[in-house]
Each structure stands twice: as C-alpha cells, then as structure tokens.
Amino acid sequence: MPKSKRDRIKQKCDSLINAIERALNHAGGLMEIYYPDYPQYYVFIQTWIDGLNAIKESVENFREGV
User: What is the pLDDT of residues 2-23, one digit of tens each?
Assistant: First the structure.
C-alpha cells in the first residue's frame, strides 16, 4: 500500500479516536449526573462506556497495524 494511502487511513483513525473520546467524555458526564442517585441508568451508561472503550482499542490496534 502506498505511504500516502497509509497516512490517510491513519488520519481517519485519529479522527475516529477523537470522536470516541468525545463520546466517552459525554458518557462520563452523564454518569456524574445519574450515578449513584439513579442506579437504573448506570447499567446503560456503563455499557456505552465499555463498548466505546472496546471500539477505541480496536481502532488503535488497527491504526498501529497499518
């Protein structure tokens, strides 16, 4: 694969990682609002956080392999 194409893929991955980090910050803000007073929401928000972290890790691993 040409270097320019690898660089473009890495840029896209960086952009995606930044978006995921923003989403994690938003989810963390929700957690601060609802936990511990509303435990019924904790499960949902924690699931989002876990999922976003898993996706972020996958994108980072993909980026390293490019």
Answer: 999 999 999 999 999 999 999 9
What is the C-alpha separation between 61 and 42, in angstroms, rounded? 28
- CB half-sphere exposure, 41, CA atoms < 13 A: 12
What's the pTM value of the predicted model, to 2 decimals? 0.88
Q: How far is CA 52 from CA 2, 4, 5, 20, in A?
A: 30, 28, 26, 6
Residue tagged 């972290």 (tokens): 53
First-residue to last-residue Cα distance in the chain: 9
Amino acid sitting at position 9: I
**Helix/strand/coil for 38:** coil
